[in-house]
Structure formats: C-alpha cells, structure tokens
Design goal:
It contains 13 helices and nine strands. By secondary structure, the protein is an alpha+beta fold. A hairpin with a 2-residue loop joins β8 and β9. The chain is flat. Mean pLDDT is about 85; it is low at about 1-10 and about 10-15.
Length: about 350
Amino acid sequence: MKNLFFAVFVFFSVLIFAENEPTLEAFFEKTLEEEKIFFNDCKKNSTSVNESSNKCDITERLSKSYNALNGKIPSEIDLLLNYTAPAKSAQVQPTYPRIAQERGIQGYVIVSFTILDNGETSDHVIVDTACGQFFNIFSSNLEKCDIFNRSALYAAKKLKYKPAKLNNKNVSVNEHLHRFTYLMSPDQTLLDSKEYKQLIKVDELNRNGKYSDAKKIAQKYSQSNKLFLVPLSQSELNLQNYNAAYKNISLYLEHHKKNDHHIPLEFVLRVNAIYVESMYELQMFEELIIFEQEFFRYLNENEGRFNKSFASAYLYYALAFANTGDVFNTAYYLNEAYKYSNSEGQRNFISDYSKRISNFL
C-alpha cells in the first residue's frame, strides 16, 4: 500500500458564492426580511452585542434564507436590524503545527474574543476544538483535541477589525467566534500500483459508456479492496440497477465506518453523489431528507468550500423535498443547484421549475 502524501491547508472563512436564481432570490429576500423582523422583536438595543446569546431562536427558514443570499450560516449578530458586522482589516495565517503534520492530524479551533469599538481585540478564549476527518461527509469521528490550540490562539490575537456599528455608532462585540480549520488533503488513493491502474481503467470504461465491462473489473477487485465498491456502484447506477447501486455503496459506507481510514476528497464527493442519486431513484425520499440534516451539517462545518462539488446532489434534494410537499426546502435546494451548476440546460430547467412553483412560495 502506498504511503499517503499530504498537502497542508489552513482555512479561514473560504467562501464560494455565485448568483441566485432570480425568482427564488426574490422569495428569499422577502422571507429573510419577514423572519428578521420576528427575530428582532425579541432583541433589545444595546451598546454592546453578545454573539452567543441564545434568547432568540434562529429558525430553519431564517437560517437558510440568510445562507441563500449571503453564502453562510448566520449568527444572531448578523440578524440585527441597523447593524453592520465587524470586518477583518488584517488577515492572519496561523501555523500548521509540525507534529500535527507528521501525524496526519486535521482539526479546527474556535476562539472567542471581544472586538472593541476601536477594532482591537481582547479576552481571547478557546471555546471549542475538534480533530477528525473533515473531508468525509459520512464520518462523525470528531474528538476533542488541543494540538492546534497554541497556533490558533496566537493567530487570533493578531486579528484586526473594522468595528461593528449599531444605529451608525461603533459598538463592541462580545464573544465573537472565529474558527481556524487545519486540513490535510491526500493526493493519492489507498491502493497499490496494480489496483490503482485497474481503478483508472474502471473509471475510463464508465466514462466511455462500457458499464458492464467496468462492473466486471470492479466486482473482481472489490473482494480484496472495498474501495472498488465505489466505482462498482457507479457502474450499477449507470446501468440503472438502482437497488444494486444503493446496496454496494451502503456496503462501502459500512466498511469505511468500521475501518475509519482516510479517503481522498474525490471519493467522498463520488460516494455522496452515488448515495443521493440511488436513494432518489428508489424513491427513498424520507431517508434522503433524514440524510440531508447530516449533509447540511457537513457543508456548514466546512464553511461552504465544497458547495460547487455538490450541484447535482442539491437538485436531488430539491426534488425529494418536492415529493414530500416541503416547498421551502424545495426552493432552497433548487437555488443552491442553480448557483453552483455549470450546466446551462440544468439552470434553465431550474428557472422554469422555480416559476412553476412560485405561486406556492
């Protein structure tokens, strides 16, 4: 088995954002305005702002409407009327600890601090940490750790901001949360050289429409390496054998969870696409919607940096919600699919579909 070579990335708030579908954008603007009014009814004016207050609930409609328009999940502070959030005036690149690199450890640290009304920061405290597999939508093996604490705390103390404003006056922001994410991206698969060549061959056969040939090779090698269950599932999906596709991808996920090894991001994306499409084709709408909660959590944890990779999944989620009568989430995922799709035909379909459901929004 090859040793994995890791490239190191330290992320801040990396945002991939594209244009909204016009009909749906108008809907989310109206919904956000209405939801913000309700939200602000339970908030009191203050000369300082506490970002971690839990007095007012952020509803799903409020959270997703804000995310559709702004490309991020809102905190309470983002939703105040007549409020301008603080903006970083200086970026700081934290150092990836050498010992974490050597051990292949990934993780994040959330630091809480006060942003004063002059833009300086104070009262830095680490409030949450985790280490685990952040590329993997199907892995929930996050554990508390402290290996990144010193790096994150040192970087947080160097951050500078343009101060927040409330009613056109500078205000301090208490308990502002900033997340530093430390990721290592493998660029080779968990395969020996012979298996790797066969995997490439299977992929080429699938791309060239020779699905049965791809299936035979993938079946053979899946006996010794469960990673081949992924292209095998793809072959079954291409052959419209949806039950077989779902069965094989589920077997791979079961194996992966038990062995808990790192897999390349490319495979994470492929597994998700096959899993979602096979469930949709089998009309497992309720199961797909349950999985959506984990999917949405994954996107939120990774701060939207993989949004563009899930354009097709968004469309399946939209259609699944449509089949259960959930118009709001249908609109949300149609809009996400529109934003990140690179297919003009798909975007035209979404626009037409959005106009047809506009009377129900």
